[in-house]
Amino acid sequence: MSDPETLYASKIKHTGPFEFKEFYRWCYDFLGEETKLKVTEDRYIEKQGPEVKGLDIFWTGSREITHYFKFEVKIQWKILGMKDIEIQKEGQKIKMQTGSCEIKLKGTLVRDYKHQFEEANWKTPFRDIYNKWVIPARIEEFEDKLIADCNNFLDQAKAYLELEGQRGGVIQI
């Protein structure tokens, strides 16, 4: 069995205006281009109310680092009370959304994801020896990289949402 190790768990939360479709695309593109993760959408649940809607979105991102290591990132979006608004920006009306957006991220370093040490039962005890004595510096290097990528994504997403929130005054809700 592969040896997953969760190294990172954090979240950001934003309440106020943001452009959902643009932010959604930005997050997907950032994860693919900046962190080189292959992102898949596992679930997209929309709850429509009379004037507002909520969304629960679940993504998985993965990236093979070597024949032995893989990054895996789980991202959960929770958007509550989202509704359409218009803002005034430089004399132009811009359509946006407002609501509460929370993004939780969990980063995992998966070791032996190809199950190389399980091909034969006699190899299994050597996995611990390999991890502890042969490649500890590589493990630390990949742990640091995964944590940095996760931090960078959440920091950039938070900055994006804060910038969106400062775009202008609301004229119609």
How would you summarize the topology of this molecule?
Blueprint (H helix, E strand, L loop, with lengths): L2 E16 L1 H14 L4 E11 L4 E12 L4 E21 L2 E20 L12 H11 L1 H30 L3 E4 L1
Antiparallel strand pairs: 1-5, 2-3, 3-4, 4-5, 4-6
Helix pairs in contact: 1-3
Give an account of the 3D structure.
The chain is an alpha+beta fold and 173 residues long. The protein has one domain: Delta-endotoxin CytB, CATH 3.40.198. The protein is 32% helix and 49% strand. The protein has three helices and six strands. Strands 1, 2, 3, 4, 5 and 6 form a six-stranded antiparallel sheet that branches. Helix 1 (20-33) runs antiparallel to helix 3 (136-165). It is elongated. The N and C termini lie far apart (52 Å). The relative contact order is 0.25. The mean pLDDT is 87.
Percent in strands: over 45%
CATH topology: Delta-endotoxin CytB
Please write the CATH class name: Alpha Beta
How many angstroms does the end-to-end distance come to?
Answer: 52 Å
Oligomeric description of these chains: single chain
Radius of gyration from the alpha-carbon trace, in angstroms: 20 Å
Q: Give me the CATH architecture, please.
A: 3-Layer(aba) Sandwich
pLDDT < 50 runs, ≥5 residues: none
Largest sheet: 6 strands, antiparallel
Q: What is the count of DSSP helices, taking H or I runs of 4+ residues?
A: 3
Order of helices and strands: EHEEEEHHE
Average pLDDT works out at 87
Shape, principal axes of CA atoms: elongated
